[in-house]
């Protein structure tokens, strides 16, 4: 497996980034149907409990790789301790014009401006319900691009109602840089309204479905200390069960000399590791251990995963590192977090 993935990556990296993304997922799905996807990954057990949920191990897949929940079973077979899919919006939308994914190979990074391209809530739910995976499944929700920001809460409520019966936890994504105005929801007044409304809806849904599904807030790395503290306080006041730090960055300091540096969109991968880890560390301090934080951003080795845990993360997620390093990264991260050397 460690030999096969670099060969596959070389072939995939010869293609347009979005074409390669789709081809890789379709190929993985075909392997899954032949019960061969598990040969690519190594499932390691390192059970733990977070948010009242039991995780097989602390290394998960971040949202964005499987936007429509089409590949849950095949991805789970690679050894992830939990899977997060989406972001889903109430109505289908194509996202931003192509090309919209760019590789910065030397920096082990990506820039994407996909813009919540997805098939909409109904198709998403059909895919989720068809999956056989019985592990922890996070469902990530957002707003449609053409929904005015002052009505964004309506989209989130619609999505929450739809995904609630099928989710282990629900992530509220207000931090993508690729939907105009979305990050404005991180401002205190907007955020208070959104969080309080969703919390009230969660209580209603818990009674209706007779189960409690944790709410998780995902934030950006491009926040100053004051904003981090304000968001942490509002998240606690409104009773959210966890946070995710962080989404992609609009900063370009680490790649300013790259010819693609001025492409619009969110930067992920190696250059995101330090800023996202610093936001994680400050967020953990602000939350004072009251709720857990999931660390994501720039994990490309077991040591990176361990560093997120050392900064206070209860769990970690990978995405861009998975693209560059392959399934081996999952087991390397699990071992590193457990204090074992990578095999």
- The average pLDDT score comes to 93
Count the DSSP helices.
Answer: 11
Task: Find the CATH superfamily.
Answer: Aldolase class I
| Total domain units | 1
The overall strand count is: 13
- Low-pLDDT windows of residues: none
Q: Strand sequence of the main sheet, in spatial order?
A: 3-4-7-8-9-10-12-13
Helix percent reads 25-40%
CATH architecture: Alpha-Beta Barrel
Largest sheet: 8 strands, parallel, barrel
What order do the SSEs take from the amino end to the carboxyl end, as H and E? HHEEEHEEEHEHEHEHEEHEHEHH
Q: If you compute it from the alpha carbons, what radius of gyration comes out, rounded to the nearest whole angstrom?
A: 18 Å
The level 1 CATH classification is Alpha Beta
The chain-level structural class is: alpha/beta
CATH fold label: TIM Barrel
Q: What do these coordinates show?
A:
It is a single chain. This protein is an alpha/beta fold and 343 residues long. It has one domain (4-337): Aldolase class I (TIM Barrel), CATH 3.20.20.70. It is 37% helix and 16% strand. It contains eleven helices and 13 strands. It has helices at residues 4-12, 17-33, 72-76, 121-130, 152-163, 188-209, 225-237, 273-287, 302-310, 320-325, 328-337, and strands spanning 48-50, 53-55, 59-61, 82-88, 101-104, 109-112, 136-141, 169-173, 215-219, 242-245, 266-269, 293-296, 315-318. The strands form three sheets. Strands 3-4-7-8-9-10-12-13 form an eight-stranded parallel barrel, surrounded by five helices. Strands 5-6-11 form a three-stranded antiparallel sheet. A two-stranded antiparallel sheet has the order 1-2. A hairpin with a 2-residue loop joins strand 1 (48-50) and strand 2. It starts with a helix and ends in a 6-residue tail after the last helix. The model has no long low-confidence stretch (mean pLDDT 93).
């Amino acid at each position: 497996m460690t030999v096969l993935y670099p060969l596959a990556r070389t072939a995939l990296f010869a293609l347009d980034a979005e074409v390669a993304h789709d081809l890789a997922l379709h190929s993985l799905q075909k392997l899954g149907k032949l019960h061969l996807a598990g040969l690519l990954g190594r499932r390691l057990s390192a059970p733990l409990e977070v948010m009242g949920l039991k995780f097989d191990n602390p290394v998960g897949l971040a949202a964005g790789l499987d936007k429509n929940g089409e590949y849950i079973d095949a991805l789970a077979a690679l050894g992830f301790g939990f899977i997060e899919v989406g972001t889903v919006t109430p109505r289908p939308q194509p996202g931003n014009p192509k090309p919209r994914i760019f590789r910065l190979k030397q920096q082990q990074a990506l820039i994407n401006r996909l813009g919540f391209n997805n098939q909409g809530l109904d198709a998403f739910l059909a895919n989720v319900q068809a999956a056989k995976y019985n592990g922890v499944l996070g469902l990530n929700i957002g707003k449609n691009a053409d929904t005015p920001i002052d009505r964004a809460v309506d989209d989130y409520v619609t999505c929450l109602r739809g995904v609630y019966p099928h989710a282990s936890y629900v992530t509220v994504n207000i931090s993508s840089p690729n939907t105009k105005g979305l990050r404005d929801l991180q401002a205190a007044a907007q955020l208070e309204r959104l969080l309080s409304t969703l919390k009230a809806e969660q209580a209603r849904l818990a009674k209706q479905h007779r189960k409690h599904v944790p709410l998780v807030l995902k934030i950006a790395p491009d926040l100053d200390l004051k904003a981090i503290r304000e968001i942490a306080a509002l998240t606690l006041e409104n009773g959210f069960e966890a946070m995710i730090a962080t989404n992609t960055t609009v900063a370009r300091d680490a790649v300013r000399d790259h010819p693609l540096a001025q492409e619009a969109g969110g930067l992920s991968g190696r250059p995101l590791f330090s800023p996202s880890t610093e936001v994680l560390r400050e967020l953990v301090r602000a939350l004072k251990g009251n709720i857990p934080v999931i660390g994501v951003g720039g994990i490309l080795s077991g040591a990176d995963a361990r560093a997120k845990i050392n900064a206070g993360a209860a769990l970690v997620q990978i995405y861009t590192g998975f693209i560059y390093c392959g399934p081996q990264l999952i087991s390397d991260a699990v071992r590193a977090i457990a204090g074992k050397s990578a095999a």
